[in-house]
Amino acid sequence: MLIIKTLELAQASVLLQDIATAEDGSSWDVVSDDDLILGTEDDYVLVKEEDVADAIACFMVTYLSSLEQTKDVSPDQLQKALSTMFSVKKRKGKLRRAWEGSKVIYNVASWSATAIGIYQNPVILTIASKAFWVSCKAISKLV
Questions:
Q1: Residue 76 pLDDT
Q2: What digits encode the pLDDT tens for the residues 15-69?
Q3: For the chain, how long is the longest CA-to-CA vector?
Q4: What H or E segment, with its residue span, contains residue 85?
Q5: Cα–Cα distance measured from residue 31 to residue 77, given in angstroms and rounded to the nearest whole number
Q6: Beta strands of 3-140 (E only): which ranges?
Q7: How many CA atoms lie within 13 A of 90 on its CB side?
């Protein structure tokens, strides 16, 4: 846990340094392969995803090796701490599950009320059934 807390503090300090140095007039432009013209020298540096991943890994190794707390930690423990820190949480929290459950209940209630309203009015039922069959015929002609 000490390693994760130290990494979180390091992340916060790096973010503060980035905010302080972001006002030096430099800017970042995201370009695709279609935007690139071979042979142009417009003071651009093309950074690929692999370069970013390598830079992050290099930074993490350099920073962790400079910490006194990590000198006596095994590489396996460091790798485990880093993987838990950067892992995506797959399990949903109680609030998220409650929210998604309430959306399902709302949708079921809404469709049920619509179906009951259509079934109770014969004119709307006739129009809705004709529209449904015309849609089915149109889709079957497309397929």
A1: 83
A2: 445 444 444 555 666 666 666 666 555 666 677 788 888 888 888 878 887 888 8
A3: 79
A4: helix 75-86
A5: 38
A6: none
A7: 2
Do 96 and 103 contact (CB within 8 A), yes or no? no
Report, as an integer, the average pLDDT of 75-81. Answer: 80
Which residues contact residue 125 at a Cβ distance below 8 angstroms, ignoring those fewer than 6 apart? 118, 119
Q: Are residues 24 and 61 in the same domain?
A: yes
Q: Which domain holds residue 118?
A: 94-142
CA 129/CA 96 separation, integer angstroms: 37
Residues 67 and 100 in one domain: no
Q: How confident is the model at residue 80 (pLDDT cuts 50, 70, 90)?
A: confident
Long-range CB contacts (within 8 A, 24+) of 28-37: none
* 8 A C-beta contact, residue 117 and residue 124: yes
In a shared domain, residues 9 and 71? yes
- pLDDT at position 85 is 74
Residues in the chain: 143
CA separation for the pair 121, 113 (Å, rounded): 13
Q: Count of domains in the chain?
A: 2
Whether residue 104 is found in the same domain as residue 133: yes
